């Protein structure tokens, strides 16, 4: 009779351990997928910020410099006679 009790206890404990291990594996998978999601989300945010700052810098470069009252010809251009 004692053997049956011990065997039942061992089988029960084994099943409980297997369920616990399966739950822990599931938690690990979910944690890793959450981390991957957060990394992708952060990368997207950083890319959009970089794109925004790059476009702002490009806009600053595109604006022409203020012309002076008497434009001076550049040394590379031939002098124009009007």
UniProtKB/TrEMBL annotation:
Compositionally biased residues, Basic and acidic residues: 53-64
Region of interest: Disordered: 45-82
Organism lineage string: Eukaryota, Metazoa, Chordata, Craniata, Vertebrata
Provenance organism: Mugilogobius chulae (yellowstripe goby)
Domain of life: Eukaryota
Protein known as: 60S ribosomal protein L35
